[in-house]
């Protein structure tokens, strides 16, 4: 296996409990995502939710919907996508007591190109655009207080990552 570049030790706290991974549906990077999760000591310790565009699709019905094309807004039920994400996070807390979410963004994302306006796509660099969306969704997801089956109250930590087409991983953000 080739050596991949991953975030340096200490960049963010490695999750000690189970997590939920939100990734894009993109078929080119499923093995690379798996390798990275193994690297972070998360083998078989994650629930996996995939939505086209990862963080992007979680935000398409919210305050930032003006960044999306009218065509995409008409064609897809983005509010339902967000409900699906939120409800699966609740199920993951109930079933597996997750404490962290990994948002896995990636290079050359077809959903970004399809859903966002030209102005949005050209507003900043590709990585920074993914960082911005991961950060906004991460803040929203970490805001909610969860209660597990033991009656413990907590907020989820959210970590954003960007995987390039060679499988190298950049850390985008961690909340809190
Ligand atoms: Zn994608």
Structure description:
This protein is an alpha/beta fold. The strands form two sheets. It has a five-stranded mixed sheet with strand order 2-1-3-6-7, sandwiched between helices. Strands 4-5 form a two-stranded antiparallel ribbon. A hairpin with a 5-residue loop joins strand 6 and strand 7. The mean pLDDT is 95. The protein is built from seven helices and seven strands, in the order βαβαααβαααββββ. It has a single domain, classed as Beta-carbonic Anhydrase, Chain A (3-Layer(aba) Sandwich). Helix content is 39%, strand content 21%. The structure holds zinc ion. Zinc ion binds next to helix 5.
CATH class: Alpha Beta
What is the total domain count?
1
The amount of beta strand, in percent, is: 15-25%
CATH topology name, in short, is Beta-carbonic Anhydrase, Chain A
Q: Biggest sheet: strands side by side, in what order?
A: 2-1-3-6-7
By CATH, the superfamily comes out as Carbonic anhydrase
How many individual helices? 7
> What's the order of the H and E elements?
EHEHHHEHHHEEEE
In whole angstroms, the N-to-C terminal distance is: 34 Å
Quickly describe the structure:
Helices cover 39% and strands 21% of the residues. It has helices at residues 30-39, 55-59, 70-75, 78-96, 110-115, 118-122, 126-143; strands spanning 19-23, 46-50, 100-106, 145-147, 153-155, 157-163, 169-175.
């Amino acid at each position: 296996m080739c050596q991949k570049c991953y975030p340096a030790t200490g960049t963010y706290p490695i999750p000690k409990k189970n997590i939920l991974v939100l990734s894009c549906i993109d078929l080119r990077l499923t093995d690379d995502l798996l390798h990275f999760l193994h690297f972070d000591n998360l083998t078989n310790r994650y629930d996996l939710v995939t939505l086209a565009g990862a963080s992007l699709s979680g935000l398409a019905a919210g305050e930032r919907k003006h960044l999306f094309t009218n065509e995409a807004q008409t064609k897809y039920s983005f509010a339902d996508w967000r409900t699906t994400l939120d409800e699966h996070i609740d199920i993951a807390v109930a079933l597996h007591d997750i404490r962290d979410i990994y948002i896995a963004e990636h290079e050359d994302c077809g959903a970004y190109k399809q859903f966002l306006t030209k102005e949005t796509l050209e507003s900043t660099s590709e990585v920074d655009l993914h960082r911005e969306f991961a950060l906004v969704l991460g803040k929203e997801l970490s805001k909610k207080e969860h209660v597990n089956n033991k009656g413990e109250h907590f907020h989820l930590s959210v970590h954003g990552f960007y995987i390039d087409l060679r499988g190298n991983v950049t850390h985008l953000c961690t909340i809190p």
